[in-house]
Amino acid sequence: MAVLNALRRTPSALARNPVLFVPILALALVQVPQLALQSINPLLSSVVSFAMSLVFIVVIPFFQGGTIAMANESLDGRTSLQTFITEGKANYVQILVAYLLLVAVSFVLGIIAFFVGLFGGVLVLASGGFESMNLLALGAIAAVVGIVILLYVLFIFFVQFYGQAIVLDDYDAIDGLKHSASVVRHHLVSTLGYAIIGGILGGLLGGIAALGSLLLSPRTASVFHLPELALPIAVLGGFVVLGLTVLLGGFFSVYSVAFYRALTR
């Protein structure tokens, strides 16, 4: 019921408040030069991508706090960019702390999975390949990697509403993470349905991003023998990708807040 209620309320909130798309558009535009570089200098694009990842660590908490506050206001009436700025600043520190904790946990789990996988690879090579390797050892390595991945997925699943808890209910970083876990624990079925919808939207965004990279890749024109149409296709594809990214991003920002409110209000 909470999922359906959130889906029902989201379109009307966006229709009343197209200003919600402005911050998302701004964030998407920041990433356009990185995509454009893929068709000019892929190596430089990788360097820029890494630098942008570091910048986003600082920027995302402000963006997250502002968009959550705007989405919350949009569900009850009108919102504005002033809300984005005010609430982004007011909640920045707590969201940043929580965000860094998420990054730290993800990093630790990623390192564990990497070294276990690396150890498994070395073991395979040392034993002469998969056929001669002890199946029990191989199964144990695969199980450890699988457990680490499962722990990561569960962790993200339970703490996914920390931003809403901080912005809407005035929790600090640690309590926001705890409150999110508590909300999910008490509404597992509803949250699973929400996560499936979110996964579909995320998959669409990922597919759109992949399409943009493909269109801007210098290999695309050579593979399809379109040297003269490569630039027009890339420009048109870029606008399509940008538009769909903004639309889906705006939808999910309101949908996530509407769902959280349906569970906690």
TrEMBL record:
TM ranges: 48-71, 92-123, 135-159, 192-217, 229-260
Domain DUF7847 span(s) in chain numbering: 1-263
Keyword Transmembrane: yes
Superkingdom of the organism of origin: Archaea
Annotated keywords: Membrane, Transmembrane, Transmembrane helix
InterPro entries found in the cross-reference section: DUF7847
Protein known as: DUF7847 domain-containing protein
Species for this entry: Halarchaeum rubridurum
Keyword Transmembrane: yes
